[in-house]
Request: fold
Amino acid sequence: MTISPRKADTEITPDYVESLYRKYEPDLRTVRDEQRRLRHGTPPLKAQLDDLEAEITYLLVRDTRPEVIVEIGSLHGWSTNWLLRALRDNGAGRLFTHDLIDNARHNVAAELADGRWTFVRGDARQTLDNHEYEIDYLFVDAAHTAAFARWFVGELFPTVRPGVPVSVHDVFHSRRPWPFSEGRVVLSWLAERNTGYFTPSRAAARDSHNALVAVKNDLNLGDPVHHGQDNPMMFFHMP
Reply:
């Protein structure tokens, strides 16, 4: 994890994330049970986010209370359900999901979707061109290529207000992002703006990872919902 001195007071830090786990523990416990039932339903749902990154996403949405979330990439709807449950528990907000495939539509219950979810099918590079959203939270988990990343840092990021939380998935499967990947592009973009980020990745930030696992165990939230352990997502506030 790197922290920019200029923006240290707004960065997502391990201490801040720990405070969110403790603040929202009862609601998070309920949502974890709901997601576990969803994952093991008939047919079983393939889950993309590992537990830490899914839970941190939920907690950030709870604490920042966004009115508009834009999700790019949903696949089978695992992240979509986490985001919608956070909006439900906030009692406000809408989620706009953009994806080439609409599998998520089959895995989101009507009571979660009604009044708070809009699915837009198509290539986000077209469906978000000249968009009119006032984005309060941006969640990116789509094509993990440098070309796609160059599009969203160059075209989409400038449309998002400073201070808005952003999540980008599949960056830290190892200590450093893969060559020619979106992670390399995003990290370079952040470095150019002297902006820090947080990741719970076991490979890239073992101390932060272990500290959060310890917090979860202390709160009796250690039993897995998803058995993956990579947690490669990165989080930051838009500079």
About this structure: The CA atoms of residues 4 and 67 lie 27 Å apart. Residues 1-9 have pLDDT under 50 and may be disordered.
